[in-house]
Structure formats: structure tokens, C-alpha cells
Amino acid sequence: MAAIEEELTLLGSVGSPFVIKVEIALKLKGIEYKYVEEKLGNLSETLLNYNPIYRMVPVLVHKGKPISESRVILEYIDETWNQNPILSSDPYQRALDRFWSKFIDDKCVVPAAKTIFIPDEKEREKAIEELYEALQFLENELKDKFFGGDKIGFVDIAALFIPLFQEVAEKQLFTSDKFPKLHKWSQDFYNHPVVKETMPSKEQQFAYFKARAASLAAPSK
Amino acid sequence: MAAIEEELTLLGSVGSPFVIKVEIALKLKGIEYKYVEEKLGNLSETLLNYNPIYRMVPVLVHKGKPISESRVILEYIDETWNQNPILSSDPYQRALDRFWSKFIDDKCVVPAAKTIFIPDEKEREKAIEELYEALQFLENELKDKFFGGDKIGFVDIAALFIPLFQEVAEKQLFTSDKFPKLHKWSQDFYNHPVVKETMPSKEQQFAYFKARAASLAAPSK
């Protein structure tokens, strides 16, 4: 049963992987929140006021106080509501959680996005090479059903980019032969009831990536 | 008096700001450790074994277990040894600590390094503009003697890049007129006994940055 938490609002955009990460964390803990949709390219004054530096979703507002940056938000959620922990309780394991989560953002998300957004074939090939190298490290790291063991944790949530980009790339990013453990993980992750409930439709994901590409191509303000 | 901690080794390179961050954290807590010097461009097998992904210092090895990435190491230190906390005890303030620390790494360190390393004048001017915009956010954020209040905390340690780059750039990066609070903070930070004791000499800093530039320019392995 969901705990009712007052004054908790998530500013997001449908299809944004960074927003989905926060939603999964809140739902895993059974925390109710209000969701406010922000339009990419036409963000509200409220959003700009809460996140004047990065001007991006997600922003989580708890009792009037805004928090931005998805990894920072996830740690805040985990420290504020103790049920169903997302990070490990052991300091060394927690360091590894943070290390791999940052690794995924730095070394997987960036080249994966390039494989989709960059038209130049040579650059795209270079990005695929980088992505494969990074995925191989993750493949070797995956020891259990999930990175978090038998349940979804901090690294699993960070890694949602992998099946998501795989969907957007029409399953052309990697094969089950090349990364059998990650392939199996992707299926288990997608079939988790909370993930299933939270993931946007394929159409919504495509629409988001299209809008994001347009917003990246637009002159910065 | 320093607490003696067995089996704690820091792999570093003299002059590396990321290593200095870890050293300041350990010294603020009075933790003794063994220091092993790594040579940029000719890293030891041990280092490559401990940090095969980023192939960089610092690596902290505690009871045989390696931790890399300076922000991850700082959090590990703070969670493992409770004396003289580096991060705030309040979850929201801790979220802000993490936010600003990441902000400094993303938005200050990168353009500040460009102002020093990039020969192209136009690109350098663009980097200075980006850096000033970021420093203005920090200037507005500084409310007390230190970002951590009356004592050095997580954000102060992250921000050591500012006076350090200012030194390397022969005090040409910014003026006290433009950023009076950051200027005052730089002085207070440098005069803190632990920082004073830890900071490398100007010659060591220059030697590090020269080696780093050479290692960045070399073809990647």
C-alpha cells in the first residue's frame, strides 16, 4: 500500500529517462507524489526558478525545497524514506553503487545517445565501439539477477538507459549473443511490475527523444 | 591526534587536485594512511588493476578493496569514519552538498582547465565566459566563511580547484572585484592548517599540469 506523503511534487517530461529513474525510485518505496508535466523547449517559470543552473527536468520538490540532478534526487529519496532501500547498507557496496551509477551516466549514456543522434557514420561507429567497451564492463559486473542482487537497486535504476536506448534503436544497439547477461537483465528489469507500470510507451519515448534532439540542436538561451 | 588506521593506502600523483581532495578529507578526520606515488603516463600495474576503467588516480585501497572517483571516495571516507563530518547530517543539505560538488566538477573545472590548456584564443574566451557564469552561481551560494558553514565541508573540498587554477593561471582567472566572496573564501581556505599542509608547492602544481596536458595530448591506449 502506498504511503501518503504530502507536499511532494515531481516536475518531469514524459519519456525522459532521468524522470523515469526518479519515478521508479518513488514507486519502489510506495511514496505518493504529484506529477507536473514540463514541455521541453518551453519550460515553466516554476521549473526555471527551481533549477536555474541546468534548466532541466527532473526536479523533485519536497515541502517547498527543490532538488535536481537525478542521482542526487535518488540519494535524497533513499535517505528520506527508509523503506525498500535503493542503495546498499554497507559503505563499500554503497561506494560501488555510486561508482557504477556514475560510470553508466558517463560511459554508457553519452555514447549510446550518440549512436542514435549523430548522423555522421564514422562518429557513430566510434560511439558504438565506446559503448560496447563500457557494456562489457557492466556485463562482467552483473553477478545476480539484478545489479542490486535479487532486487532492483541504484545501479539497476541508472542502467535503465540500456534497454531504453535499445528500444529506441529498434533493438539494433546490441545482441543477446554479445551481452547475454545484460540481455537477460534487460528482460527481467522490464518485467518488474514497478518498471512495467512506469515505462512510457514506445511512441512516448520516440516523441521525447525527437523533442530532446530538437532542443539540443536549438541555439542555447 | 591522528587515529591510526591499518591497511589504508592512497595511490596518487603529487599536484593532482583530485588526489589533494582525498588527502584533505583524510587529514580533516585525522586518519593516517600510506601514500604511494603514481607517475602520470607510466601508471603501475597495481593502479591499472585497481582502476581498469578510468586508469586514473586517486584510488583509495581500504583493507584490500579499491575505491576510485574522488567524489565517491570522499563519501566513503565520510561514511566509514564518523569524526569531523564532511557532508551535512541533514538529508536536504546533503543533497545540496552533492549538487554543488557535482556542479563544480561539471561547470567550473572543465572550463577552468580549458582556459589554461586550450591555445585557441576564441575558444579560451568562450571558456572564460562559461567559467564566470558558473563562478557567479557559486559566489551567490556562499553565505558563510566556508560553503560548509564555519568549517570546511564537501563543497569546499570540491571547490579547491578554484584557488588552484587561479594559482596556475598566475591569478589571471578572476579578480577580487568580480567575485569578492569567492576571493575571500580562497584566502580562508588556503590558510586553513590542513589545506596549507596538504597543498603542493607552485612548482609541483605546474609540473603536474604540464604532465597532465602531455598525457591528455598523447594517443589514448
Short description:
Two copies of one chain form a homodimer. By secondary structure, the first copy, chain A, is α+β, with helices and mostly antiparallel strands.
Overall structural domain count of chain A: 2
Arithmetic mean of pLDDT of chain A: 90
* Shape, principal axes of CA atoms of chain A: globular
> How much helix, percentage-wise, in residues of chain A?
55-70%
Spatial order of strands in the largest sheet of chain A: 2-1-3-4
What is the count of β-strands of chain A? 4
Number of helices of chain A: 10
Q: Which structural category fits the helices and strands of chain A?
A: alpha+beta
CATH topology call of the largest domain in chain A: Glutathione S-transferase Yfyf (Class Pi), Chain A, domain 2
Strand content of chain A: 5-15%
Please, what is the oligomeric state? Answer: homodimer
Radius of gyration of chain A: 17 Å
Record the SSE blueprint.
2 copies of one chain form a homodimer.
Chain A: E1 8-12, H1 17-28, E2 34-37, H2 45-50, E3 59-62, E4 65-68, H3 70-80, H4 91-117, H5 121-141, H6 154-158, H7 161-168, H8 180-191, H9 193-198, H10 202-217
Parallel strand pairs in A: 1-2
Antiparallel strand pairs in A: 1-3, 3-4
Helix pairs in contact in A: 1-3, 4-5, 4-7
